[in-house]
Amino acid sequence: MLRILIADDEYLESEALRVMIEQSGIDTEIVAIAKDGQMALQLCERHCPNVVFLDAVMPVVDGLSVGEEIRKRDKNKKIIITSGYDKFEYVLRALRMQAEDFLMKPIHPKTVAQVLHRLQIQEDTNVIKDGIILLRHYIEKKHYKASYAIIEDLGVYLQKIPDINWHFACRHIYEAVFLELGLPPYCENVKIQTKTEALFFLKECLEKIDAFAIYEKLPKNSNLKKAIAYIAKHYQQELFLEDVAKELNFSSSYLSKLFKKELGINFNKIVTKKRIEEAKKLLLKTEYSINEISFEVGYQEPNYFCRIFKQEEGITPLKYRQKNK
Question: What DSSP character marks residue 224?
């Protein structure tokens, strides 16, 4: 979202600009409107907008001086100078302060929409880049839970962006995630062009990190790794803690405590995660009915399977298939 401050000593001018911004179709919030330059500086400090529209000529402190002061304090803030005077001096000062644009009055609504659209793309791109940098940092530090959360946030954020380059964004996320885990380079032949393909890709990232986070904790040939491997092999069958413990020559109480201590979740949750993970693959890669998938992943009651799936994923199996396929 673009948080915007408007500064103009002419009420009708600031109101007209406010209406044009609100009707631009861009996700914006007008956080404050200033009547002079000094008020603009004060409101800028108080409300922290990321975009500032400044009239070049205002009482107390002119808009160009305000822009220069804002630039000294914050090199990343987006400044747009507006003016009713086509003076070279004004344009030159705007260029020197690295203003995003210089708009001559009267300003056309289409021009405002174009400027805001360009700023929104810049903002979206910066947020994604920052997220990827943070993600790479957490993976290097082996903070996999934090990495998992960041990828989820990126997925939500990407979904809101109308004109994102899906292939570019996903390739960079892949490089931050998979290459840090020692997996093969991103395959350029696999093009990600739609929102659905991108979200499916990010979910695969989540699954890779989730699995790696679990096994990274485990020493080779550990009892817990044996138990997880057994579940992965037999998840289609009816599984009880007691039966798994018996197969591995453990006591059920020991195995239960082991799961809770090492992974923070119980036996039933591990089984559920595995079954739902496999169900999601079948929903997207096969034409099996919901009932058939239920039986395939170890649930004998399709209604119960649908209820568990919705608890884990937030949507029903059918909606998951329709949304992602």
Answer: H
The DSSP secondary-structure symbol of 106 reads: S
Degrees (nearest 5) of the Cα angle 66, 71, 74? 120
CA distance 102 to 109: 15
Q: Against a cut of 0.85, is the pTM above it?
A: no
Does one domain contain both 209 and 227?
no
**Number of domains comprising the chain:** 3
Q: Is 74 helix (H, G, I), strand (E, B) or coil?
A: coil
Answer yes or no: is 115 within a domain. no
Q: Last residue of a domain, which of 74, 107, 140? A: 107
Q: How is residue 268 written in tokens?
A: 């039933």
Residue 53 sits in the same domain as residue 143:
no
Q: Clarify whether residues 242 and 198 are in a common domain.
A: no
* Final residue of a structural domain among 161, 181, 216: 216
Nearest to 323 by CA among 137, 189, 197, 191: 197
187-to-30, 171, 181, 192, 265 alpha-carbon distances in Å: 43, 9, 16, 11, 35
Task: Name which of 223, 244, 225 is nearest 234 in CA terms.
Answer: 244
* pLDDT, tens digit (0-9, with 9 covering 90-100), for 107-132: 999 999 999 999 988 888 788 888 88
